Amino acid sequence: MPPTPPRRTWAPAPALALVGSFGIAAAWVLLVQKSGQQCSWMAVIAALDAALLLRMGGHRPGAARAGLALAATAVAIVLANWGIAAEQVGRMLGLPVWTSMARIGPEYAWLLVRLANDTVDLAWLAAGLVAAAVWGR
What we know:
The protein is an all-alpha fold.
């Protein structure tokens, strides 16, 4: 029996992980809206999501997949925190989240993110990035 050829990398796997980042960030913002908490533990869920999407997409194991999982998790963290900040501002102004995200400036969003995240939240975010690098291999 001839050996099976090596698994080819599916080109849309990184795009699949990027779309997953948008989806997990939206779920994160909705969870924050309902709970009233920062829910930074969702960074670990975002890491698991990115690793699974890349794996299911057929991306070859290794440093490249770990890097893509790390990048997809970082995108989810940034989008979610920006969405949370925009939701807080938009609620006061009567704007939906997507409109507020387009109008809020990066400096103001960064200020709100720094004020909202404490040491435990930063630890969860860091744990999510580490988990993405480990699980993405």
